[in-house]
Design a protein that fits this description.
This protein is mainly alpha-helical and 277 residues long. The two termini are 33 Å apart. Helices cover 62% and strands 5% of the residues. The protein has helices at residues 2-19, 35-60, 65-69, 78-81, 91-107, 116-119, 122-146, 152-155, 161-164, 176-196, 200-210, 212-223, 229-249; strands at 258-264, 269-275. A two-stranded antiparallel sheet has the order 1-2. The longest helix has 26 residues, at 35-60.
Length: 277
Amino acid sequence: MKCRIVLLMALLISLNVNAQTDSARKQSPVYKVHVKYEMPAAITGLILFGSVANPAVVKNASITKEELSKLSPQHVNRFDRSVITDNAQRYANAISRSDFLLNASILSPALLALDKKIRKDWLDIISMYMMTHAVNNTVFVATVGLVHRARPLVYNTSLPIEERTGKNRTNSFYSGHVSNSAASTFFIVKVFTDYHQIKGWKRIMLYGAAAVPPALAGHYRIQGGRHFRTDVITGLLVGAGSGILVPEFHRCKTEKRISVTPYYAASASGLSISLKL
């Protein structure tokens, strides 16, 4: 996790350097960000996550030999069960690839600095980006702290019992690698499409492309015996939600985006709520 915080700081420096030449240009703001409050809060949240919350989760996510003896693959749902028998010899290589994809995804928003319209607002963008990960990691810690699910490798009898027990073994749900990767890639698409007002199928296709890196990271997390399919799917959905919703909440509202209209009919009455994204 400390590595991720360093990567986020490197991204801040990258965007800062690339933004200097365009700092004087003006345009109608796309987002309203309270940088002096949000950036310190986000940085504090990320540091606390890396130094306190995540280590506590890893420590508490332990399993003993006695607890292991009570587990059975039959307790795992049919959709997830097949990944338990994955070849343990490829675990290390798969984990290495998933780590690479995670780190590349975290740095990928630096590509936004290539866009002149976006990079002049670099401080707003990096503040939102850090807030995105702070929110995403908060949801992750809250979930993993409540849901104790043994990782697939715990069930894999081809591994020595020492590798199946100990710390960091019952925090399978959900995948933090996939969630953080998705938060980063979906953030890029959200910001880019907001600045350039891209709608319709083009926007959908860009979001489809954003799903590729976290999906690949999830594939390798499964191959590495760290997560089940449902862990990966959940991580992608949560990360994508963070990457989209945090910028959306900062959007400058130039029009009425949420409308509530009462309706009446012979059989029922109520409220009609519409959200324009």
